[in-house]
Amino acid sequence: MSFDFDLFVIGAGSGGVRAARFAASYGAKVAIAESNDLGGTCVNVGCVPKKLLVYAAQYSGEFAHAEGYGWHVAATDFSWEQLIKNKNSEIHRLNEIYKNLLQGSGVTLYKGKVGISGVNEVKLNNRSITARHILIATGCAPFVPDFSGKEHVITSNEVFYLKRLPERIAIVGGGYIATEFASIFNGLGSETSLIYRGDLFANGFDDGLRKHLRDEMLLKGVNIHFNSNISQIVKSQDGIYKLTLDNGQVLDADCILYATGRRPMTDGLGLESLGIRQDSRGHILVDENYRTNIPSILAIGDVTGSVQLTPVALAEGMAVAKRLFKPEEYQPVDYSLVPTAMFSLPNLAMAGLTEQQAKAKGFRLKIYESKFRPMKLVLTTDQEKTLMKLVVDAETDRVLGCHMAGPDAAEIVQGMAIAIKSGVTKRILDESIGIHPCSAEEFVTMRTPVHID
Questions:
Q1: According to a count of CB atoms within 10 Å of the terminal CB, is the N or C end of the chain lower?
Q2: What confidence tens digit (pLDDT) does each residue in 202-213 have?
């Protein structure tokens, strides 16, 4: 049977674009469809614009530090409107780059909402298109639970387009998005409250880093409410939102950002009519080759409930393209040592196992830790500390995990992630020559474990 395309990709985010481009480079006839802007969540309302806002938030600290180095900074004036305008220009530039990359690769680009009408057929703008393989890469969208006052909140999709900087903002959640935006708005001068239902935010990171981040954010003036939920939101006549917590406390806010989870974007795809299996949260179930229970229909990225990180979606997109069209180069994605970073202030970054994960796996551990005031701050009044930590297998000397809280943590830990992936031992780190003076050298100068378990 002949098909219009060898591969039809639904969703032009990171994973979908990667799969489409490389499949086309391997000689496949490929199409991709997107109903929104090219680049998906990461480029448009995710990691890229968020990192730009993190950079903006850091300047308040830089101005404060400048006097210690002899600079007399005049009164500063921040323009949220200018920041958002410049951010929008950069995102538009990236959208065009994605468009050029796809078209330059020979991929046919469609604009519109797609439904899957058969095992080898999609519907797009009232047109039927056939494909040997259909790849779903639609990602996830913010989810807000039902409660009294839900209509007054925004999500991470809207926060990047606020018309003005809120004087007071309440942020609900304890994951990447909530914690990063708490740092962003605090750094930009908003009175910031972070509300989280659990004991401690940043799940998945080492407990030592999580506690360190809590302490540093409190010192920076973020109002943190752990073990708290919002029971009601009421908008007063003067436009101020009154947030009632489940402990009876009432907070005032001009803006309320909910970052309490994300749901897979599968609406309108027609999964139910085809019998494509999903889990209880709506994620598409796939096998180790990213195939659904209908072998011609595949799915990758956040929509599958995989590790929800852009580089993971990119790796999955590459894996699908190679398995289908260049199988001699195919290698499965290794999920065992995925590094990650949270661009809170201070940044968190990790590679490998946390101390808690390593203990749960039965390892006997040597824990190395260094907590210090970075050199850049010694001429300032800023007392922020950097934390670095190594988790080492006491039996084999292999480094199981590397963790950091502090400036440029992601930049430093990326190199350590390669070392851990390569099986680096603590002895090799000890024998390595550090670069002096810099924070990164701490990872090769920690000699004495703080404890052995």
A1: N
A2: 999 999 999 999
Q: Which CATH superfamily is domain 150-260 in?
A: FAD/NAD(P)-binding domain (3.50.50.60)
Looking at 3.40.50.300, 3.20.20.70, 3.50.50.60, 3.90.1700.10, the CATH number of the domain 5-141+263-329 comes to 3.50.50.60
Rounded Cα gap, residues 22 and 131, in angstroms? 17
From 92, 283, 403, 436, active-site residue: 436
> Using CA atoms, how far apart are residues 242 and 215, in angstroms rounded to an integer?
27
- C-alpha span between 140 and 173 (Å, rounded): 17
Amino acid at 70: G
CATH number given to 346-452: 3.30.390.30
Cβ atoms 245, 228 nearer than 8 A:
yes
72 annotated active-site: no
Q: Which tens digit of pLDDT belongs to each residue from 95-138?
A: 999 999 999 999 999 999 999 999 999 999 889 999 999 999 99
Q: Which of 53, 49, 344 is nearest to 201 (CA)?
A: 344
Could you report the per-residue pLDDT of 15-36, keeping only the tens digit for each? 999 999 999 999 999 999 999 9
Q: Does residue 338 contact residue 312 with C-beta atoms inside 8 Å?
A: yes
100 exposed, middle or buried (CB, 10 Å; 0-12, 13-18, 19+)? exposed
pTM exceeding 0.90: yes
